[in-house]
Records
---
Amino acid sequence: MGESISFRLNGKPVQLDVDGDRTLLWVLRTDLGLTGTKYGCGESYCGACTVVVGKEAVRSCQLPVRAVRGKDVTTIEGLERDGRLHPLQEAFADAGGLQCGFCTPGMIMAAYALLLKTPKPSRDQILARMEGNLCRCAAHHRIVTAIEQASAKA
Amino acid sequence: MSDERVPIAAPPAAAPLPSGGRALRRRDFIKLLGGGIIVLFNVDLLDLAAQEVRTNGYPADFNAYLRIGNNGRVTVYSGKIEMGQGVVTSLAQMAADELDVSVESIDMVMGDTDLCPFDRGTYGSMSTRFFGPALRAAAAEARAVLVALAAEQLKRPKEALAVEAGVVFVASDPKVRVTYGQLAQGQKLVRTLDGKAVAKPLSRFKVMGKPHRRLDARAKVTGKALYAGDVRLPGMLYARLLRPPAHGATLKGVDTSAAAKAPGVVVVSQDGMVAVLHADPEAAESALRLVKADWEVPPPAFDDETVFAHLLEAGGEGEEGEKRGDLAAGEKAASSLFDGTYEDGYGAHAAMETHTALAHLANGKMTVWSSTQTPFPDQQAIAAAVGLPKEQVRVVTPFVGGGFGGKSGARHQALEAARLAKATGRPVQVCFTREEEFFLDTFRPAAVVKIRSGVDGSGKICLWDYHVWAAGSRSAEQFYDVPNSVIRTYGRWGGGTPKMHLFATGPWRAPGANVNVFARESQVDVMAAKLKADPLEFRLANTSDKRMRSVLEAAAKRFGWKKAAAPSGRGVGVACGIDAGTYVALMAEVKVDAATGKLRVTRIVCAQEMGIVINPDGATMQMEGCLMMGLGYTLSEEVRFQGGKILTRNFDTYEIPRFSAMPAVETVLVKNDELSPQGGGEPAIVPVGAVVANALFDLTGARLHRMPFTPARVREALAALRKASS
Ligand code: FES
Ligand code: FES
């Protein structure tokens, strides 16, 4: 059952002794106490659980923790540096890209992965990349604006 | 655990009040308040709350208060909650403006039954409408008290003093000054608002009326904002519960022995509640799969297609509402008569946060962190469920991840968590899976509207005979100048009406209003088309309501509305409505892919008049949210079911609007500073179905009578049209 799994989480090494079949989402939310990554559907439909592994946005509800062995994992908690918000976080706050805020971590992480690969995405690229992330408060317009603002600043 | 994660409000300065339940006399309540300058006030209309307040033994003359502490910070205590609608920010803006302090020096303590006075719940666009004026008056009162104290201390007349950023100073000699904090030092001054304090006139607003970054933004973009599911306690267990395969099913037998053998699993089977618990939520989930249950499922009485016939039958005689004139006279005066039937299926709330609660019983006191719009009513229900006196139950509401009415009085998860915490002696979290969320949601009821209407020779609506099943009459009220009109309701949207629904129903963002406006505004369009009248002109010719005219005209101006009778082939439509005291007119443009039937809304203009606007940016955000969310109920959202069996399980089959559905949205706030602020959280969603239906008709000549307008239904309507014309 238990296996030793090491990876980098938000820039710091972690070593866990866990059942490698458990999903990254729940390992983050329970064992590691990082509750910024949310459960929204558990079946890959909503994107609330999005984290970045390497440079890819990944649905952590679908990912066995074993799969991140030796990789670099970034969660919403890892974007702030020395008390300074990441430009995307700043832009989401400024543009009002959130209401209840529950989809927000997943939205920001999906956008973060997009900007890693495509620093200046077109509006269509933004829409296409964000299509799989759901927001029930319907903050879509502001979310797109926020991503555009952040990419303009980067 | 990580203490840098933030709950909804800064920790309050004072110790918890045990006010949450005990039948407190006012004097006792005040004794419990800490020091500082305190103004008690009432947020809800007293006549609505009085009965509940009396039977619950709370002081009857206030249900919120604010305190200026000796650090100069202002804390507002209210049982209302923040679920995305932005009240934390708009209320803080109001208090800040009236008190002349910065928004950042305000702390909001909300939704905690131990810290806040009784409140019925957060719903119905009420926070700004009723809370706003009360809070402003209370803050104005507090400012007056502070200025009077300052006058005494500085030995100057009040008139000579000015206030800025929480400092009272002599206007002609700013060095002579004293801060709010200094003034509050060592005081315990309690005032009760008598409703007479005069709030600032619009012209002196400094904070209100201007955009302000959400006070919860930083917590929410860093992942530090705490929701009910994020609270961690040592030794806590995660519970998964056995659910029936269908509503109305009975449990014939259950075998939990295999689950009980799994390592670390705790099984609780109590009065029909069967739960498996584990320190790892996924292990609890796996153990639940080992539980064998034998259910008896009743044969399905009706399904999502046959429900409408069922509603008509179950509705009975109905109840007459608003009535004007005489229907027979209207019928006689009519040169054309129109009969229309409109339908809408069940809708799910589908907030991104599923219902979640963590319960912990310690030293005889049950604390429940819950995602709820109604913490105080929940407190009572939890107390009853676990057999504790109410004052031994505390409900804490962290940030709520969306509500839309679905977390209003829907409290399975909190009751289950509390019962399980009691049974196991451990803190227990119940977090619904998405499938449970779709199964246990209090759906917006399916509804039917039948209208018989008539126009006379001069193009005036002379008859309006309106019948609505299962939606109630919200937003059905007549604002067209119809001399002969009646509204009849059969069953309401809530429970209450037996045998109408197979599962729980409840309020959904603007309950009942969406289908009522869909029906009315479609029917009005049908009449305009028959007369070959421009739909906007027809509406203007039939209403003298100034506020309605103003929003229609504002929308037309922004949209660039060009006069034409429908169907014009352009694909533009108009619809309007009133909700929560606010007037809205929408104009939209649609495109349809004739092959697939996929309907796309490319542009929406929304003109809204909501009295004084406190936070224009917040109001605009709410409008945009309403329009986008409205596209969901209009185009795709429908709960599929067969008898008590819910077929809709996750977002793959319940499609909520995505980025690709985003139309170009333009919003216009029509000024009306004569009127106190009206509701903003719901009105703009109300005419979305109608405006899309009308635009589709304008484009194709096909009229849809049932929401949502799924591709299949659009294809069908287009095919029927082709058949009719060939
Ligand atoms: S929780 Fe992972 S996609 Fe919804
Ligand atoms: S902000 Fe509430 S779900 Fe997106």
---
Amino acid sequence: MNDRPDYFTLIGQALGDRLELRDGAAPNELYLSLKPEALSSLPDIVALLTRSLGARFTTLVANDERALNGGFFLYYVFSAPAGDLFLILQVPVDPRHMEVPSVTPVLEAANWFERELKDWFGIIAFPNIYRLAVHPDWPEDVHHMLKDFRSDSAVPRVPGTFDFKRVEGEGVFEIPVGPVHAGIIEPGHFRFSVAGEPIINLDVQLFYTHKGTEKLAEGMDPRRAVFLAERISGDSSFAHALAFCRCIERLSGLEIPKRAEVVRTIVLELERLYNHIGDMGAILLDVGYSVGAASAFELKERFLSLNETLTGSRLLRSVAAVGGVRRDPEDAVPKRQALREAVVTGREGLERLYDLIMSTSSVLDRLETTGRLSRTDAFRLGITGMAARASGIDRDFRRDHPHCAYSRVRFQVAQQKEGDVLARLKVRVDEARESFSILEQLLQQHLGEALIAPVSPVPPGRCALGYVEGWRGEIVHWAMTGPGGELFRWKITDPSFHNWRALPVAVRNNIVPDFPVINKSFNLSYSGNDR
Amino acid sequence: MLKNFRQWGKVVTGSFPDKPGERPEGFRGKPVIDFPRCTACDRCAEACPTHAITVTSETAENRKDAEGRPQESGGRIVSIDYGSCIFCGECEAACPDTIHLTRELQPAVSDRKSLITRARYRSTGSGSWEFVEIVADAASDRQSIEEIGARVKARALELFGRSLHIREVDAGSCNGCEIEITALNNPVYDIERFGIHFVASPRHADMLLVTGPVTRNMEIALRQSLEATPTPRMVVAAGACAIGGGIFGKSYASCGGVDKVIPVDVYIPGCPPHPEALLQGILTAMDRFPSRR
Ligand code: SF4
Ligand code: SF4
């Protein structure tokens, strides 16, 4: 934590009159608490953190703390570029006013977060009147994240229709699609405005799969909530469960056994592998290259099956646990063999698939320059993870905020510049290659040691972040415990919540028939977004 | 290349696909309670995240007093509902002597109640409980995937003179169920060979395969999908969420299961259901179609 004094001094000098600095429960969290009288300077402070200090916005947490201290608090979480530090700007909200200055004008990446804040808490920041996270038939004055709203309330439907951006002009047509789509995919509503072939605007209406996950968890025993975390987004079952477990461990100051950290890393990479490979197949299928797609899907199935052999669950469920892991994927000789063999054969399969793609010019034609997301747009919108790396943004929590056993393995952070479908495919290939290498480095390390820390009570009244780099990108959770160690508040941020905003930008000026492959190249989670 | 994968597959998955039901050691399958050993103590029920296991006082209809009021018989009922189970293994961890996660899949059923096993206990008088009898037993079944596939194909030909058309509707799932439904189309399961096609529109569908607890925001779309599906049609609820809300239950945001919104013909347990369980569930639904003539 060599860089911390710098942040302390820097922030203290520039903003000392408006902020109070304090350490979080976890060693790499620095809380900057905004004095109520300085509320109007919130956008300036955010601008200073992001522009002058280069801190990057990762999530915005709202918390109804009226029962604890009479007010609401907002927590703007930033990842600091050096020294593995998180800066958490804590902002008080007066319950009589329920308003804060919007930071969106200085930080576009906060746009959706501020809109969700209004829909779920009734706290107004973003001046946009359009709803995001509730549907039009939800009553205006009901905010389900307020503590006085009971999760089993029956909420009546009210009349209302979606507001979509109308693009007017000669020859402009609207094409509405969904929420139930062709194919086996999650529900969402897309509205294309096209002029001839090219898409000139895309509006996306999500939150069809909103299940009230954050609300449901309130009052829950954190150990039980792990099972809920596994079901935030099925394709990231382990990564989400782990991010949540890390919240609880970090707020408890729990030491994780070495072997558990190794297992966690192995399982994260197994999750990355089956998804990256499956996405390659989906991309190939959407450009009509069925031979390539079939190989990719077969390879993906092998990995799902490997997951089952190693952990008992194809989706790697029931592995994560607060304090460690519940299963060791290398606890028997046949499993160790299967894993070794998968690294060798999987790598060969991947390389063959890659060669096949790169030598098929008709496929490359469809992927190159399609669905471009420029670095500038990716940066402005706060795009994260694999999609960001394909647009030339050099970030990866595995390197920048090392967790699990990532500080003990060598790997390259994948990078592409073009930001098109091909770049996103290549990032996946490179990351899958690195996954094989990481697995190889970790095989049979600390075998036979403890898998989980002894059970200890979860301390009351503490909060912490929990984060991992999932296959899609940064998964960031924030949890606070109540007086009995139960969950008081749990905020879930799936990378999809950032990255959905990339899709309308990336499809612009592409033709409608290319939409499916562009969409697949991001492969965003509806459920992770909607929760 | 394919040959290569198959070889690896052999090592990894054993004899798939010819002998299904044989999942690997440590597979998180159907939890089975050794009822005679069980002391109805409640520890497993406490541990279960979805209340699939319950231990309750017996107030059954068959125990009413002269005025017809339900009587506390002094007995206890231990019940496990495979429709709510997410196969997490917490019950086994809470009571390793009595509960074991087997390697078996709980098969799909058309009667929701057939997913429940129940046993009755009586008080020994000294504060503990002893087993009396099993009062209900969940369905079990073992067929190979090839057998099931062949039957689906024959049945579809007989019923429609063509393949079976399924429309998948995600009514708010976590996408886990979609991963497994998608897997049915991969070259390993390859259910097209059994004459099963996923179609783009409910208008062309014989069957709706529904996942998710039916969120408030998908309720109307689900009803519309059903209306657009011609009869005769089957509705299959796939996964714990679709069966009864699963881990999400019923709330302001969730209807708590497909049959709270539209009638369901077949229930496929799992979280998510294994591809083999999905196929078996599809066959169960096929058997429920009225014969053409
Ligand atoms: S496996 Fe999990 S969900 Fe199923 S009965 Fe046991 S504790 Fe409940
Ligand atoms: S049943 Fe399980 S896998 Fe399927 S949608 Fe529900 S939580 Fe996800």
---
Amino acid sequence: MDLLGSGIFKGMAVTLKNFAMTYFDRGRKERLPTVQYPEAGDTVTLFTRNFPFLIYDGEEEVDGMRCVACQICERECPPACIYIVKEKDENGKFVKRPKVFDIDVSVCMGCQICVEVCPFDAIVMDSEFEYSKEDRFGDLLFNRDELLKSNDYYHKIHPEEAQARDANLAAKKAADEAKKKAREEKAAAAAAAKAAAEKEASEKKDSPEASEPVAEEPKAEPAAPSENHAKAESEAKEKPAAEETPVEEPAAATDETEDAKEESSGGSEGKETSEEPEETAGSGEDDEKKAEEGEGVS
Amino acid sequence: MEDPSKSTTSEAHTLSDSVDLDDATRSEMEKAGVIVSSVDWLYNWARSGSVWPLQFGLACCAIEMICSAGSRYDIARFGSEVFRPSPRQADLLIVSGTVTKKMAPQVVRIFNQMPEPKYVIAMGACAISGGPFKQGYNVLKGIDRYIPVDVYIPGCPPRPEAVLHSLMTLQKGIRRQRTLGKGSNNPAYVEGNREYPVPSFSGKDLDPPYNPEVWQPPEKRPNMPEDGCP
Amino acid sequence: MTMESSVVAGSEPTVEPRGFELIEREGLETNLLEVSMGPHHPSTHGVFRMDVKLDGETVTELRPVFGYLHRNHEKLAEDMGYLGSMPFTDRLDYFCSMTNNWAYALAGEKMIDLEVPERAEYVRVIMAELTRLVNHIMLVGFFVNDLGALGTPLLYALREREKILDLFEWASGARMMCNYMRFGGLRNDLPEGWLTKCREVVDAFPYFLDEYEKLLVENEIILVRTQNVGVLKPELAINAGITGPMLRASGVNYDLRKVDAYGVYDRFPFRVPMGEVGDCYDRFMVRILEMRESIKILRQAMDELPEGPIMGEAPRVFKPPAGEIYGRIEGPKGELGFYLVSDGTAKPYRYRVRPPSLVNLTVLEDLCLGHKVADAVVILGSVDIVLGEVDR
Ligand code: SF4
Ligand code: SF4
Ligand code: SF4
């Protein structure tokens, strides 16, 4: 420092240079020129996440919905901003679809945990951010129909992620198909063997096994996505087993109490198996409890 | 921009209906309304182009608010780059971040100190509803319980562009306002200087829990707890 | 300074009434003036309040008042699964979500003896050092802003920060609240092309630093306002538990990256910059020098980044055995630690954060006494606090 004030002038020279250079290297990326939002785009990338939305496949919004209302995301969401009510058909049976699926985006913190825990790849993150509204309760509570967006849209905003997810789903589906085939063959064999006396025995063996994947679901751990997918896959493989006995079918998507009801009503198949449902229902509840414990983890 | 004269006349009908005027006066008022609204338009155009926010940050969202004033997003393009440190010189209060129960009285006080016409943007999940911390014991579940909020920006934190978007939403709202004349729907001119009672923090909770003038518990939904707090 | 605004925006009187006191001086009669700076004050960093007692303009007493941003982070975490707290740690020190994630992940990994794959460790180092750049550059920007250099330096800092935030957004999806690390690794791998872009940003950074230094460090006003202001003696610093750049500015060589060598930090040769006097200028310069060291680490980490998995053998259900653990890292502001007590269930029994800024703030009164009130603002800026972390 030779002359008092020379430091200040050095600093001023820097700002002056910066100012002058803006006229010469306007487009240089290091300068990070102003993004002319809203006229000329924004800074949203292909990886940006903001709020979740639900995917549907194909054209039909509601029918193509991937969500099966398993409510895992509802339980895992840290600020608890998801609200799900399952849909019932006219007989009062639960179908694999949410009737109400609300996300309160005025609470959501965009943490992506719901996406990580969803075993069905049904919920993913959106990059849309223009949600400024003048009405909080009316506009910022997104219901199911507002949340549903097509898979094409997902491919548009997050192409890489969407491809990975689709590939994963396709693999799952293929595994599903293979299982189905095997199951059909097995079912045929089983029909032939039905007359035989070991019917009850086979049922006995099936039911507890079948209820297992149901209990498994809520345990879904939001670990690495890859792991998650692997688990979902294995689950998908197990599920056909659950569907083997018609009695068990709704169990895959509904909760345990309903499960037990279904079983007791469906138990009319064979009078001699009437004590069976009790047992399975019991084990199911146990599993539920276990799952309840487990789910807090993630 | 929408045609201001059109909306004015249609609304003037309902207004004059309520005041119970005869047809002649009404048509006269409509005429007057047209004239007034064009002055309005100029006035609102000027007002909406220079909304000066208060330099007031609460938490993480404030950083994104500062970012939106940075050169990359440049809030100056919307005429709002002048962040005033004093509430007396500001038009817009951006509640950017978590309002705790200890901080809420100060926020209301700051709002009271701002001169009319004043606007409030609730930025981020926390300011709207308590956000991620809404289950906590010390977080106010939405600043709209005490002061009227004009625009809500969801997000945690909202992107700087979302702040700009909210500003545009606010500007649209300002341009819709009718300021002069009898048909004014601008609270600044109808109600005078809006000052709301400052809640007191007793160490446990705020008293009163909300200001019934500006906020009522929403309609109860099946998953809501008894007290109606979402 | 804009004192008036702080007074009008002041808060309810919580302390016992302390009125004006008359002090006898030779010839001159002065009053002790009490000013409540904050919680809304243009130059306090966040909603922080200082009750200062002034004799003329000299600070004779300073009482910090906390709690305006107490968000029950710890209590909420005790009611939530271990992973559920991860996004909340982002919001502790909102400039440094990556290092917060790391500290918490480290504590969790210690609890169940989890191995982290090498690639994940390297990526963590890269992210942490980028975070350090963001934090320090913003600190310097706000610091000179407090000194009265409104605008330009802060805008330059914001510009550089944007570049790094773009990298974060690319890797994790969000600009500020990254929520990127998991127990045992990372949530997702680096996207393709990320490293190239990161290299570009890191390579351009030293030029920016040169420019920034030219802009600031010789400026006479900054020298006068910061040198010999708020001197922190090393003994006091150690006794008060100060960590991070603030401790090193006082001339104590203590850097957890060297001491603990957590992660893979033992593989990187880097120097620990230290100050001599411990005044505001040293604290400011230490940060600038640290950024240069960070760039060195970043370069090496990017060169050596191995291929491989990014996630260890994390159990599906994170249920640590009963016990307690303290995991700490060298955050940009100091030692950031997470103390977890588990009772064997899926939720922590006790969850406690050791926030560096709160501990560093404890010496504020010692630093400010005897200085002018305008210097109190400068000193507060040099301590580098973020209220989200102080109050939690
Ligand atoms: S976890 Fe997935 S499938 Fe289950 S309810 Fe949520 S979105 Fe639907
Ligand atoms: S992103 Fe996070 S906060 Fe938002 S709905 Fe999903 S889990 Fe809940
Ligand atoms: S909404 Fe999110 S980013 Fe904003 S203050 Fe709250 S926690 Fe922070």
---
Amino acid sequence: MNLFHYISDFLTDSSHWHGYDGIPHRLDQHLGYSFEALAIAAAIALPIGLVSGHTGRGGNALAVVATAGRALPSYGLLVLMFFWIGRIGLLPVMIPLVALAVPPILVTSYEAMRTVDPAPVDAARGMGMGPAAVLFQVELPVALPLILSGMRSAAIQVVSTAAIAATVSLGGLGRYIVDGYYQRNYETVAGGGALIALLALAMVGVFWILERVVVSPGVRRSN
Amino acid sequence: MIQIESITKRYADGTVAVDDLSLEIPDSSITVLVGPSGCGKTTTLRMINRMVEPSSGRILLDGQDIHQQPVNALRRSMGYVIQNAGLFPHRTILANIATVPRMLGWDKVRARKRASELMERVGLDSSLAKRYPYQLSGGQQQRVGVARALAADPPVLLMDEPFSAVDPIVRKVLQGELLRIQEELGKTIVFVTHDIDEAIRLGDTIAVLRTGGKLAQFAAPDDLLSHPADAFVEDFLGAGRGVRRLSFFTSAGLELTTAPIVAADATDAQVAERAAADAPYLLVTDTDGKPLGWAEPKSLTGGASSVPAAELISYGRPFESGRDSLRDALDCAVLSPTGWAVAVDDTGRVVGVASQLTIGDAIRRAHAEKGAEASDRASAAAAGLKVAP
Ligand SMILES: Nc1ncnc2c1ncn2[C@@H]1O[C@H](COP(=O)(O)OP(=O)(O)OP(=O)(O)O)[C@@H](O)[C@H]1O
Ligand SMILES: [Mg+2]
């Protein structure tokens, strides 16, 4: 039996499509963790990245934080958190996921603001736009494609890594991998892995659509 | 009127970009700030819309100190055009142009209608309205920049090297269009350039700045060319001052002759009659009166059509009588191997020809007339140049 048979058997087995351990529920949990981690990371990283990019200050400190953040092993951090603070809600899994998502968002939002062409900004000020209008009507719309690409990298990494939640007895699609592994049920392991890979791909699609909707065709990177 | 009263700008690092500059910029005319790179042109311009605040001195707009006015309202009353246009890349051409009207609270429909009018005014096809800036050529973007600055009909227009990033041919066209628009609208324009030819072509008055932000001379272009204040200005004006000054002399008074002109359907006898006027060359025109080329009378013995058009001697580039300057007429005579200039009307039909000798006479006469006039104007310009108290 090859991998594709495992995957198709897993996905076509109707018992996998309902109940507490069914795909819809596990997917829902998985997306829930991912979305929460991404939202927290964005709430932290976006304002810092945008403000320091806008003012041109703090770029070095930001690079250090981002590099350090990237060097953190998510799984190691999870185990550490689990032993340190125990299983208080989602906290032990949220910390590594947020730490994973912050660097790409931070770095790209900083870069996005840094690389905005100064000419339109100068023109906007020169024609009498106030600072808030310049920020929201000129700088952000122009920086948006790069900001979104940072969010997309973060989303892909978080969705792929959220599987580790299962190792500290939380849910999500990681359950199939962990449980299947212990039960030597390779069909479940392969199926869970495939679902996670598909979800990561789906993120690419979601962000593609998002870009179509919110980014002006004048600054879309595909131009 | 914009009165610049002994302004100095010292940047934080100690650079003195503008040093005790005083200028009176008259209404409804183009004032050009020109000078070598780094002489403080941009700094001066940006002090007028308060993008840069002077270290000392003040600027009055219609008698009011601009420092007392709310900065954004002041800027909205002045169009601002920069090099490379600085268009908003995420907005369509129409939306770019409608920016200031929208900021002033016009409703969308009115602002867009106004923007379409302006596209037409600056020579942009309406099919470009829905495009984004990256889909336009540099020259088109620059036109959008001008349209955007004019959108709310501000009395003042500040332009910082608006045409320096486009190629020379497009630049000429854009300069011509600016002059045309100015003729229609009569704005108070302050125009920055480092190109002295552009300054001479566009300026009603020219302020030449020298490095260190000091005013070297403030005069009308004709006076600048005829009476440069010092060696720096003379050097900056470059070679050919005398010939370039001829651009301010109209060709209207130039004496033209129609004697050596024959139409392509002229017979041998008619050619012989024309040749009797002892002209060394005859100008052959087509039956519509458009010039074809010069020929020696003896080569036209079989009638004017005996020499194929392709073998006629080139007539160079004709000048439009009355509209073009004596410089164009002279250029035309010098370019033609026969030494004669061809004058045409606005439809391209020949109205007469003039020899280098005739043009030389006209130049001497014009110089004599201008001499008296220019010294009057030079003293008037000097009076407008305020001395710091
Ligand atoms: N923000 C600034 N801080 C410090 N010095 C400045 C600043 N802006 C301009 N300068 C200096 O002031 C001087 C005048 O600059 P400005 O931009 O006004 O020159 P310019 O005549 O417009 O030159 P160019 O033709 O090259 O555009 C230059 O020496 C320049 O280096
Ligand atoms: Mg400049």
